[in-house]
Design goal:
By secondary structure, this protein is mostly helical. Helices cover 41% and strands 8% of the residues. It starts with 9 loop residues before the first strand and ends with a helix.
Length: 128
């Protein structure tokens, strides 16, 4: 089967850390006074201009996801794939969980990387 081009590249971030998404949407660096998210890998308040420039070239969309969806993504990756991932690694899964209709009938790929997670927090998120 021939390979097909990905339809879009998306920037995913937590609602509690919107600086990069807002920057992408406005086409300029936007800072925030604080962050409030379990996804500390994306919890920047001041996006780097060079990174934003790259994202403006390669990304076609930017999505913010809720904390509950991030936890659900961490749990799903643990239950279905046996993966222990940090919350930032579950952002793509969280975006799919929040808007499944957007992805129905399409081939979807999300990068899952990063296992820098507090074991106690992970146990709380995946639950009994």
């Amino acid at each position: 089967m021939p390979r097909t081009r990905l339809d879009t590249e998306r920037v995913r971030a937590a609602l509690g850390a919107p600086a990069m998404t807002w920057s992408w949407q406005q086409g300029r660096v936007v800072t925030t006074a604080s962050t409030d998210t379990i996804a500390d890998g994306v919890a920047g308040r001041l996006p780097l201009a060079e990174v934003l420039e790259d994202l403006l070239v390669v990304a076609d969309d930017a999505v913010l996801v809720r904390e509950e969806s991030i936890v659900a993504g961490v749990r799903l990756l643990h239950e279905r794939a046996g993966l222990v991932v940090e919350p930032s690694a579950a952002l793509g899964v969280a975006a799919i969980l929040e808007d499944p209709e957007r992805f129905t009938g399409r081939r979807v790929v999300t990068v899952v990387c990063g296992g820098n997670v507090d074991p106690d927090a992970h146990r709380r998120w995946v639950g009994p």
